[in-house]
Every structure is written in C-alpha cells, then in structure tokens.
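Lecture notes, unit on protein representations.

Consider one protein chain, 70 amino acids long.
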Amino acid sequence: IETAMASALDKLAGKRRFLASLRETGGTAELTISLPGDTHQGASISVQLLKALADLGVSLGIEVFPKTNG
C-alpha cells in the first residue's frame, strides 16, 4: 500500500497549485485505498506519507468491500 501511495503522491506533488486552487474554491481531493473484505488485512501508513497527504491538502479514504454470498 505504501509503495502505491508514494507513487500517487509523487504524481500529485506536481499538481500542488491545482490542489490549492481546488481547496480555495470549495473543492476537495481524496486518495482512496480499496481493500477486499474476504481476508484479514492490515496496513500501516508512515508518518511521512500522512504528512505528504496533509501538505497537499488531500484526504485519505479507506474502503473495505466485504465478500457477499451469492
């Protein structure tokens, strides 16, 4: 998860002005992590990545999709 997040943040870092303008006009940006819910999973996100998200004004979303029967 951290590798994918770091890659996404590298791309977003080049859009810093756009992200600031988006926030100033009432918009929001979110980086979403989607996990399957059919197995137990855990992850830790480093302080450095969380800070990078905060510095860009980007929220972190986490979604778990439970396995459905049928």
